[in-house]
Amino acid sequence: MTRLTISEDPGEEFTVRGHNTVLNADDDEVVFYNDVTQVKVVPERESFTIQVLTPAFAVEMDFSDADAVREALVLFETKKVLEVDLDTPNSVRITPSNSEISET
Question: What angle do CA 55, 59, 61 make, to 5 degrees?
Fold first, then answer.
């Protein structure tokens, strides 16, 4: 699942280490909290997924249960997340926005 590194004062951004679904390769991105346009929870068959949307890309993070999702949402809301990393393969996915996909 997804592993979050937290800090009492991480700054205005967090780092995402995940799997880029367009490139089919591991990738790193920086997410500025001010760039986040939407956060939503999507139930999946075997996990719960939080989607964080920005103008440039979307990040999907899988969590094992509803309690883990609630805890993660609180950490994002209070801006305590310093780093997002995948604990299992493809548990964190990065998808560039449609405009970037059509340009490549």
Answer: 155
